[in-house]
Design a protein that fits this description.
The protein is mainly α. It contains 24 helices and 7 strands. The strands form 3 sheets. The protein has a 3-stranded antiparallel sheet. A two-stranded antiparallel ribbon has the order 1-2. The model is unreliable at about 1-45 and about 80-95 (pLDDT under 50). Keywords: Cell membrane, Glycosyltransferase, Membrane, Transferase, Transmembrane, Transmembrane helix.
């Protein structure tokens, strides 16, 4: 699933080839920052004419004795006080007698990510209310969010509601009759928070999405730092997410998909923290000595970070149903991580040990908790009246109905299946039975959505940005909307930064290599997160789906590119020339991606530009 079943040897390999106290980052590409004292320890010593000398020119270092068990379970974090010979600065600075203050060493892991998040936040909040109208599917979510905060459930709106909301003086034609909706309420509750503070205006319904988009940059920077054990790579990941066009556009539009991405990323981050904390507890129990019996019998105790991950998965599902696949992927991810921890601790049958000790707790923490969160998210609908027309849509369905179970169910891959028998469900509260019936209607709508749309796309084309989505388009002429030539264009195009995504395709191939052939658990974790956001859509290729759904896995695409950048920089023991060339190549890639974002920036923000400039940015006919 994620490479963890064969992952611990990668951790052992990393540390076995790395001197004690070295900043561990991307497996064999350990310490791509150049901040650790790699020296020449472990490099074969000869006159340079033998095979070992020739390999040494390419960064080869001979294996060394394994470090202590605690370091194999939890490699030290960079710039962490008390983490042994943690890097205190670049080698050139140390050679000049300069060292970072101890207080700065302890906070550098936050200062860099915060600076990158501030940069990304300024981009996202700058002129957030522009375009000053309701664009694309904001027409649904802005009004549904307002209804939720008014009455606890979504309602119908007049056909002229959009023009009335944007008029001066403003008129909000709110009505109380319920509306049939096809997505759970959490994302709309969140969007509505901004409307409650800033009013029913573009800034109001976009504010919370922009805030979550900015927070996700900070989260990703910290997640990448923990994953790769490198503050530099953490900041690179945050910067790349800041300048991804799809993430940028979705952070400035009141749709649900950016919110789904936020909760998925938060769940992944909590699982990563849980991994380190749990392994730290194992190291303390074993006291540095692997023990087969203890590794088999030990219970891993109370795991609040994994419970927090379950809550986040539940909130993702409660925003859009596509989040439910995350529960399966991440549930397996944490179990495989536990298998690896027990194996490295000495368990003779780690699969059996993890199945007995960790399988059920993982299921309860991720799946059961997410189900409870999901049902709780419908509290506004459940609390509404069950009188006809007085509560949420379908709230009165179970009133007076016999509580029989469903006759047919629709299953993935199998389609519509008849149940072998039916049983009485009258003992279930009528509100929950009405909710179940409502969900069956929602499910039928979602799987049978085949209405053609000019911007729909196939998930096979998403990674190469085959068909982006135009959220907003106008063609002003001379003198209109700041147009200074005969013909202009103003568009908000939901498309990723092309050079970042195309580099991501190469980076995913690199991660597949690291996971399958080098048994690198970090590559497996990145692929797991990306798979949770991408692979389920291949089951619904005939359904009407769009490229902007892919924002859910953008952070993991960025992590893949960041891991590849670490490999470009090179291992700590490589020659100065190798690391110089690698650093220049990595820096050039990052600068090109930033330039590419700036080049497409007018298309991300709806700026008025000459039509010739707009056509120059339509690199493919499928982008028009």
């Amino acid at each position: 699933m994620n490479g963890e079943t064969a992952a611990e040897p990668a951790v052992v390999e990393t540390i076995a080839q790395t001197p004690a106290g070295t900043d561990l980052s991307t497996s064999a590409e350990s310490d791509p920052t150049g901040e650790a004292d790699g020296g020449s320890r472990g490099v074969p010593q000869d006159d340079g004419r033998g095979w070992a000398g020739r390999l040494a020119r390419f960064g080869y270092r001979s294996p060394e004795p394994l470090p202590p068990l605690a370091e194999r379970l939890v490699p030290p974090m960079p710039e962490h006080p008390g983490a042994g010979a943690a890097p205190a600065g670049l080698p050139r600075l140390r050679a000049a007698g300069l060292r970072l203050p101890e207080s700065l060493r302890g906070s550098i892991g936050w200062l860099g990510p915060l600076a990158v998040a501030l940069f990304g936040g300024l981009l996202r909040f700058w002129h957030l209310g522009s375009p000053g109208g309701i664009i694309f599917d904001e027409t649904y979510y802005a009004k549904d969010s307002y209804s939720l905060w008014q009455g606890g459930y979504e309602t119908n709106w007049a056909d002229t509601a959009n023009s009335q909301i944007l008029s001066t003086p403003q008129v909000i034609p709110y009505k109380t009759d319920p509306s049939f909706i096809v997505h759970p309420p959490v994302g709309k509750w969140i969007i509505g928070m901004g409307e409650q503070v800033f009013g029913m205006h573009p800034l109001g319904w976009r504010f919370m999405v922009a805030l979550l988009g900015t927070a996700s940059i900070l989260m990703l920077a910290r997640i990448a730092r923990r994953l790769f054990r490198s503050t530099l790579l953490g900041c690179v990941a945050g910067l790349l997410l800041s300048v991804d066009g799809l993430h940028f556009v979705m952070s400035r539009t009141a749709l649900l998909d950016l919110i789904v991405m936020f909760w998925i990323l938060a769940a992944f981050g909590f699982l990563l923290i849980d991994r380190d904390h749990t392994r730290g507890r194992i190291a303390r129990v074993l006291d540095g000595v692997p023990d087969a019996l203890t590794a088999h019998r030990m219970r891993l105790g109370w795991r609040p970070y994994r419970l927090a991950a379950g809550v986040c998965v539940g909130l993702a599902c409660s925003t859009k149903w596509s989040g439910m696949y995350v529960a399966a992927f991440f549930g397996l991810l944490t179990v495989f991580w536990d298998i690896g921890a027990r194996r490295i601790s000495g368990a003779r049958r780690p699969y059996w040990s993890a199945l007995r000790r960790d399988g059920l707790p993982a299921f309860c923490s991720i799946v059961l908790v997410s189900v409870l969160v999901y049902v709780s998210s419908w509290s506004g609908w459940l609390a509404s009246s069950n009188l006809p027309g007085k509560g949420g849509y379908g709230r009165d369905w179970a009133v007076g109905h016999r509580g029989l179970s469903t006759e047919f169910v629709t299953l993935p891959l199998l389609g519509r299946v008849r149940m072998p028998f039916r049983f009485d469900m009258t003992w279930v509260p009528e509100g929950l039975r009405s909710l179940w019936h409502y969900h069956s209607q929602m499910y039928d709508f979602n799987i049978n959505l085949h209405s053609p749309h000019m911007y729909q796309s196939n998930p096979w084309s998403w990674l190469v940005l085959g068909r982006p989505v135009s959220f907003y388009y106008e063609s002003p002429t001379l003198g209109q909307s700041g147009c200074k030539v005969n013909a202009c264009a103003s568009e908000v195009l939901a498309i990723g930064t092309p050079l970042l995504w195309w580099s991501g395709v190469a980076a995913l191939l690199y991660c597949l290599y690291r996971w399958a052939l080098r048994r690198d658990w970090r590559a497996g974790a990145v692929l797991c997160g990306l798979g949770a956001g991408l692979l389920p859509w291949f089951e619904y290729q005939s359904r009407t789906i769009f490229l902007f759904y892919a924002v859910a896995f953008v952070p993991f695409l960025v992590l893949a590119v960041t891991m590849m950048i670490g490999a470009l920089i090179g291992p700590a023991g490589a020659t100065f020339e190798r690391r110089l060339v690698g650093s220049v190549a990595a820096g050039a890639l990052v600068l090109l991606i930033v330039w590419n974002f700036l080049y497409f920036y007018p298309l991300y923000t709806g700026q008025t530009i000459p039509m010739s400039d707009w056509r120059a940015r339509m690199w493919f006919t499928s982008w028009v």
